[in-house]
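Today's session is about reading a structure prediction critically. Students often jump straight to the picture, but the first step is always the sequence itself: look for stretches that repeat, for charged clusters, for runs of hydrophobic residues. Only then move on to the predicted structure, which in these notes is written as discrete structure tokens rather than atom positions. Here is the chain we will use throughout the hour.
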Amino acid sequence: MSMALLAVAGVALDALCGEPRRWHPLVAFGNLAARLEQRFNRPYEAAEGPAALGWRSHGVMAWLLAVLPLTLLAWALAELPYLGWLVAALALYAALGLRSLGEHARPVAQALRAGELEVARQRVGYMVSRQTAELDESGVARAATESVLENGSDAVLAALFWFAVLGAPGVVLYRLSNTLDAMWGYRNARFERFGWAAARIDDVLNYLPARLVALTYALLGDTRRALRCWRLQAPQWDSPNAGPVMAAGAGALGASLGGPAVYHGELHARPSLGEGEPANPSHIDQALELVQRGVWLWLLILAVGGYLHA
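Below is the predicted structure for this chain, in token form.
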């Protein structure tokens, strides 16, 4: 079965079923990752001098134990006759989060339109790691829009990219690596060394997909403004991959995003992103539409590419 048809099948399963309510494979993987971290990540205070250098190797070992066996299992199962195509479609389905993204973002926009700021703050708190209790309406809309743009890359289009490149093992490798980055890739005392490998590997795996996503956002929105924001604003962002995605997305939407935000009690002076009016509920909906149209565009490209190759 062609890669394009398998990709359509995975996207269709996500649209019809959404995230599994029970026995989600990424939840089980998260539990495994937490146990590995407890086993391999020694307390920050325990290391002095050169001994601290070994922590990166502990993080590399934990990453290998978490990711490689499952990636190899996905490869072996995908090679099975007759059943391999089903395994591939299910692997993509498990990695995608398009429907879930909408299920989280739309209630934020609806609460803002209804004037229910407290509800909107609570709902957007499910999407972002920043503190939301004191955000005003524009701050809530900004946080939700940023989350949709970034997760549209990480949890949707980048997964589709690696599926198209390497099939089931590719999407499993990417999604597990991205999950470990979300769990271990913090720059703090606990994870600065142990999470180094998870953060760097995710940066590498996301480098090309993030730029293709930024280009996709630009092509499907205000192209000139998106490209200008990408060129001028992305280098100022602390993440090499989130910068292009969010700058181009903000420019494509004509929204002003970025700016200061509080994370874990600390104020982070983030640069501004995009141009135009302050974020509002419409920008949340428009960001979702941008991601959805991006998925359809990529599926079309896969189908045309598969046809020409055949």
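Discussion point for the tutorial: The chain has one domain: 3-309.
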